[in-house]
């Protein structure tokens, strides 16, 4: 265990600030143009995959008695990022529409890289912020999500995913043998519908219609509309389209991660719509050091679902005795997910091993594979 006094040191927090290097990097590539614009996705995917291989695993856990005050240098990065991303995104829109050295292909590639940043880092940081009780942090999370036109993710994640993960009611839980290219359109539609339904049902319990202004969807639509309008003002219709393009790439990055996090893992149906409680073994764990720096411990996902209110520095790592382990970090696993035969070759045997380890009494998995069990009550 890492003592709280050591966790609190700036030097301990600094590796998690590596994401900030992507801001000057994308500006440098924008200035260089050409094939250089691909340097951002190459860095986030391949450089950190290589660093994982070189640096190995981080199996240490921080002292859970570490206070919020001692986590200042960690939480600061998530508070700085929304401003950095906003200035970078709209600054690039202005730059790309007011320069003549970027070809059409280079411009598309540049905003592909921007989407990788706003998805890999931005949505991930919004995820950390939305889980906090502080209203300012939750608003920062909303602003980050509005920059990728995915504001409903907050409602879906907090009200649906955490409550129903591993059950047929959670569209984000990837089913066994379901390739990513089938998962992606299903989750895009399912997440919006389930998020809207969850907020509507909460209002109904207060005897209010969904059109009541307390419905956060009105805030989501206003923020997203403001972002689109600003992109139009800054960069015209080209800027508007570039904004939408980077938002799409960001969403694709998010859902690739969602696909990896719970693939094939289901909670046991206890009968009559009742399911067992969420446990660490219902999420894939990855202890790879460098990618956990980049993703602020998102890969310690088993603990996040077990204790959702923990800030990222305090998320605990689990051994293979308590949670299933990914063979590589997310940079490698998300690339594998784009190649379904490769993904299934790597992951299906691991899912079957997990089933035998935790649920040897279940002999027929058809209903779990097809999400045909009763919806949770």
TrEMBL record:
Q: Does the keyword Ribonucleoprotein apply?
A: no
Report the locations given in the UniProt record: Cell inner membrane
- Which GO MF term does the entry hold, naming one? metal ion binding
Q: What's a Pfam family in this record?
A: FA_desaturase
InterPro entries reported in the protein's UniProt record:
AlkB/XylM, FA_desaturase_dom
- Membrane topology label: Multi-pass membrane protein
What does the record list as GO biological process? lipid metabolic process
- Indicate the segments forming the Fatty acid desaturase domain, all copies: 107-333
Transmembrane ranges, per UniProt, are: 12-30, 36-59, 71-96, 102-125, 228-251, 326-343
What's this protein's name?
Alkane 1-monooxygenase
Question: What is the species listed in this Swiss-Prot or TrEMBL entry?
Answer: Shimia isoporae
């Amino acid at each position: 265990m890492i003592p709280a006094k050591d966790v609190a040191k700036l030097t301990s927090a600094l590796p998690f600030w590596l994401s900030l290097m992507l801001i000057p990097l994308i500006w440098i590539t924008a200035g260089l143009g050409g094939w250089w614009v691909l340097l951002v996705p190459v860095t986030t995917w391949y450089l950190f995959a290589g660093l994982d291989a070189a640096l190995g695993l981080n199996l240490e856990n921080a002292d859970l008695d570490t206070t919020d005050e001692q986590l200042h240098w960690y939480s600061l990065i998530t508070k700085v990022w929304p401003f950095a991303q906003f200035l970078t995104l709209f600054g690039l829109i202005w730059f790309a529409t007011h320069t003549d050295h970027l070809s059409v292909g280079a411009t598309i590639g540049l905003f592909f890289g921007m989407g990788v940043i706003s998805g890999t880092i931005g949505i991930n940081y919004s995820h950390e912020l939305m889980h906090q009780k502080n209203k300012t942090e939750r608003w920062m999370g909303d602003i980050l999500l509005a920059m990728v036109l995915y504001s409903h993710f907050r409602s879906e994640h907090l009200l649906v995913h955490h409550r129903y993960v591993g059950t047929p009611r959670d569209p984000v839980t990837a089913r066994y043998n379901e390739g990513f290219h089938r998962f992606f359109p299903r989750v895009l539609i399912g997440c919006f519908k389930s998020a809207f339904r969850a907020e509507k049902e909460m209002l109904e319990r207060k005897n209010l219609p969904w059109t009541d202004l307390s419905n956060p969807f009105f805030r989501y639509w206003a923020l997203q509309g403001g972002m689109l309008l600003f992109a139009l003002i800054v960069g015209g219709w080209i800027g508007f389209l570039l904004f939408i393009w980077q938002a799409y790439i960001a969403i694709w990055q998010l859902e690739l991660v969602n696909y990896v996090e719970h693939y094939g893992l289901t909670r046991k149906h206890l009968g009559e719509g009742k399911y067992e409680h969420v446990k660490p073994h219902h999420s894939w764990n990855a202890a790879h050091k460098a990618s956990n720096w980049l993703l602020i411990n998102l890969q310690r996902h088993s603990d996040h679902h077990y204790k959702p209110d923990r800030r990222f520095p305090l998320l605990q790592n689990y051994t293979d005795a308590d949670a299933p382990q990914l063979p590589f970090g997310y940079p490698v696993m998300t690339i594998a997910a784009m190649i379904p035969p490769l993904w299934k070759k790597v992951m299906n045997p691991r899912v079957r091993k997990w089933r035998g380890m935790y649920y040897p009494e279940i002999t027929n998995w058809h209903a779990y594979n097809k999400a045909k069990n009763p919806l949770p009550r």
